[in-house]
Design goal:
mainly alpha, 846 residues, 43 helices, 0% strand, TPR_rpt
């Protein structure tokens, strides 16, 4: 499959969505892949049994609970495959087998008992118990159930009830129809044995279990002459598994091991008559091996445990349980590196155990001294299971160990179930609620509330008070921020192109007010339109801003308000183009020369122009010209009597920081230092009053310190640059970009292991640079000789960005460290071939 296309835009909580899909594909669409685990092939076999109309033919003995399918969708976030009945899956997503079974489901009232049985067992196999209960809505007549086919229908109902309700009264009643007065048939042998097993495994009182297990053995004796050797051996093995489980509960491990050894020997000599029965045999071997391994662990037989793990991995390499058992074996032996690799491998194969595997991996990582990697694993475990006490407590402990009280408090709130707002259990929503629906962001980072600040400014309607009616935060979040945030959080319902498209149950009162403003957007004046457009841009609706404000030639603009509005539109157009073909802000440049352009606007545009030419055109001449325009405007601003000292000093500090690009382009170190000295001096001396001005001062100082660090690095003053980066980090420890600066400083000192930790902090504080942080951490771990950690980081980068060719190459280089070398190499080869084909097609276009 085209894994990168399949998963593009879909970010699961841990494993790449394509990997979850391939390993568990029959649950999603009824087909299988080369990586499909044995248990998932139950649905494939059940569909073939339905087609072949084979009464008495063996199906798989093990079924999965209803929660399994739900967890698959939740963890992979392949929400298009969410279903409670077969018809919920669109035809274009369904395999031919799924579509055939869906057709049978639609006409289930017309089916004879044999087809009804086949359909019901397929529904059990794909974890759709609600649909089973539509096909078999009530317990069947015990007398009618003396017939094997009718008994099989009743058995499917009983299995569906247990899968969705556990050992409830309805489940008990459904099984007792078959278990109390059984007939000598294959269906009854399995149902009676299954009931005995459920009593032994799940009932508070298991005293009746031996009765039913014995009854099943007698039934099997009665029909032994009617069965083929293959069927009889498999049924004997399944019954033995039930009896072994009961013996284990009685702590009679000697009898359990002896019985298991006998039946394993008989199964080992068995040959399946055809491909379908080969699947049955494979499942039987896997289940027997699983019990053998569990008993070896409980009896402390290390040699048997090692042999069983090796056999299990060879038999079913994609099975999460055997990978967990392998990791646990390494952990018990004190082999922490191998245990870490094993738990990481298991976590990708979920869904059962994903959070637990990540928690165990975090413990092993911490034992090995990889504390930041362990913190990342704790966060991934929490995001996989945010309401599980174990994941919450582990992350709280990790935060407290790091002295990170703000994120510890946020974790506690995210772990508290909110029935009215289920999305509030999401870590990303708690951090950045303002960007989702103008909710209350709880991140302690500087930029978590920018949309809310813009909204509050618009709500005031530009009234002048202690704060001027100018929005003057410098950070313009990248256009991809909202999209990345929604993808990484999995809250895809928030992915709308217009605020009015957001479903009602996701809205806040502020969001509804924004929608009211937009309803009357065309009737508002330019000043009001600019205020609302600022909110839209900060929320990530750049395209909508450009649609709502049509471009107008500058010579047709008349008032300062119109000029401000169209400068903002032009700035949005420019920022939204970064990373593609840059749209130069030519409209803004023309506005600066308009006779009605106010001084402050001309000042702002001049500063933008200097930065644009320094970064994009590299024209010293143009940057110098705009610096001179800005300097004249600054002189006028500083002379205005109604501007406060705060505003004047802030404007001057920002000016010198931005126009320092001119001496930088000229290579004049002394001039550059003087500009930055002045910018820094003013940034530190700004007389801020009140929380909002303190916020602006802190933001400006952080930006100034960051620019000074780049200045130092550019001229070889690495030690001073490192000190400035450390100060920037102290001003905002939750800014991902600053952790990248820290990592780059560490790499300059040839400390890749330490740099990896900083890149990991970038990744976990995303979404601005999550994929980049993981990929960079992977490369650092690779250089530092930590292939297990590197492999996981590269795969996590691909989980977020399936097209990241450098991460794919990194994964292929170290994939063997976590047992996925062949898959990693295949992924890289396919991605490179796909990319080459696209490039060739592009070149052939006229």
């Amino acid at each position: 499959m085209n894994r990168w296309e399949f998963s593009h835009g879909i970010v699961g909580v841990n494993a790449p969505s394509w990997l979850t899909y391939e390993v568990h594909r029959p649950y999603f669409d009824g087909a299988e892949s080369p990586a499909t685990v044995i248990q998932a092939r139950s649905a494939v076999l059940a569909a073939r049994r339905f087609e072949n109309r084979s009464p008495g033919a063996l199906r798989f003995g093990m079924t999965m609970p209803a929660s399994y399918r739900r967890l698959l969708v939740q963890e992979s976030r392949l929400t298009a495959y969410r279903a409670t009945v077969p018809t919920d899956l669109p035809d274009e997503l369904a395999s031919p087998a799924w579509r055939r079974m869906t057709g049978a489901y639609r006409r289930h009232a017309e089916l004879d008992q044999l087809d009804r049985s086949g359909l019901a067992h397929w529904l059990v196999a794909v974890c759709l118990p609600a649909a089973v209960l539509e096909v078999v809505p009530a317990d069947l007549d015990p007398a009618a159930c003396q017939d094997q086919v009718t008994a099989a229908v009743q058995a499917a109902r009983a299995a569906a009830l247990f899968g969705s309700e556990g050992l409830s009264e309805r489940t008990t009643a459904a099984y007792r129809v078959l278990a109390d007065h059984p007939a000598p048939t294959v269906a009854h042998v399995q149902a009676v044995a299954g009931w005995g097993y459920l009593l032994a495994r799940h009932a508070g009182d298991d005293s009746a279990a031996p009765l039913f297990l014995g009854r099943a053995r007698e039934l099997l004796k009665d029909i032994a002459g009617e069965l083929t050797r293959f069927t009889h051996t498999v049924l004997t093995a399944r019954l033995a598994l039930r009896e072994v489980m009961y013996a284990e509960r009685q702590r009679d491990f000697g009898s359990a091991r002896a019985l298991l050894a006998d039946v394993r020997a008989s199964v080992a000599e068995l040959t399946a008559p055809d491909g379908d029965d080969e699947l049955v045999l494979l499942e039987t071997r896997r289940r027997l091996l699983d019990r053998h391994l569990e008993i070896a662990v409980r009896t402390g037989d290390t040699e048997a445990e090692r042999a069983a793990v090796e056999e299990g991995v060879a038999l079913d390499p994609w099975d999460v349980k055997i990978r967990m058992q392998a990791a646990q074996a390494h952990e018990r032996a004190g082999e922490h590196e191998q245990a870490l690799a094993g738990y990481l491998h298991a976590a990708r194969l979920g869904p059962f155990g994903t959070g637990f595997a990540l928690l165990r991996a975090a413990d092993r990582a911490r034992e090995l001294g990889h504390t930041e990697f362990a913190r990342v694993l704790n966060e991934r475990a929490f995001r996989a299971a945010p309401r599980a006490g174990a994941t919450r407590d582990a992350l709280l402990d990790a935060c407290r160990r790091d002295g990170d009280r703000p994120l510890a408090e946020l974790t506690e709130r995210a772990a508290t179930r909110d029935r009215e707002r289920p999305y509030a259990n999401n870590w990303h929503y708690r951090m950045y609620a303002s960007y989702f629906n103008l909710g209350e962001s709880e991140s302690p980072g500087l930029y978590a509330r920018l949309p809310s600040l813009a909204y509050e400014f618009a709500e005031r309607g530009g009234e002048r008070g202690a704060e001027r009616a100018e929005v003057n935060w410098q950070r313009l979040m990248p256009p991809a921020f909202r999209g990345n945030l929604i993808r990484e959080s999995g809250l895809t319902e928030f992915a709308v192109d217009h605020p009015a498209d957001l479903p009602e149950h996701l809205r806040t009162p502020r969001w509804n007010r924004l929608c009211e403003w937009l309803d009357d957007f065309g009737g508002q004046g330019p000043e009001r339109q600019q205020q609302v457009a600022m909110v839209l841009y900060r929320l990530g609706f750049a395209k909508l801003v450009l649609e709502l404000i049509p471009a107008v030639p500058v010579d047709r603009l008349r008032t300062p308000a119109e000029l401000r509005l169209h400068h903002w539109r032009d700035l949005v157009r420019y920022v939204a183009s970064v990373g593609t073909r840059v749209a130069a802000p030519e409209t803004s440049f023309a506005i600066a020369e308009h006779p009605a352009c106010p001084t402050n606007l001309r000042f702002v545009i001049a500063v933008v122009a200097v930065v644009f030419h320094a970064r994009e055109t590299r024209s010293l001449e143009e940057a110098t010209r705009w610096r001179e325009i800005g300097a004249r405007a600054l002189e006028e601003l500083l002379a205005e009597p109604d501007r406060s000292p705060f505003e004047k000093m802030m404007a001057e500090s920002r000016f010198y920081r931005s126009v320092s690009f001119v001496p930088f382009l000229a290579g004049d170190r002394g001039w550059l230092a003087r500009d930055m000295d002045r910018a820094e001096e003013l940034a530190r001396a700004v007389p801020a009053e009140g929380p909002y001005q303190e916020f602006l001062k802190r933001e400006n100082l952080r930006a100034c310190v960051e620019s000074r660090s780049k200045e130092c690095y550019a001229f070889g003053e690495d030690e001073r640059g490192d000190r400035l980066v450390a100060e920037a980090l102290a001003l905002d420890p939750y800014e991902p970009k600053t952790h990248i600066e820290v990592a780059e400083g560490l790499l300059r000192r040839d400390l890749p292991r330490e740099a990896a930790d900083s890149y990991l902090r970038t990744a976990r504080l995303g979404p601005v640079s999550t994929a980049f942080g993981y990929a960079s951490a992977g490369e650092c771990f690779r250089r530092a000789g930590r292939p297990v950690l590197a492999e996981d980081c590269f795969l996590q980068a691909l989980r977020l960005d399936p097209y990241a060719i450098s991460a794919a190459r990194g994964w292929a280089a170290v994939g063997a460290a976590n047992g996925m070398g062949e898959l990693a190499r295949t992924y890289l080869a396919d991605l490179e071939a796909w990319g080459a084909a696209r490039l060739a097609a592009r070149r052939e276009r006229p």
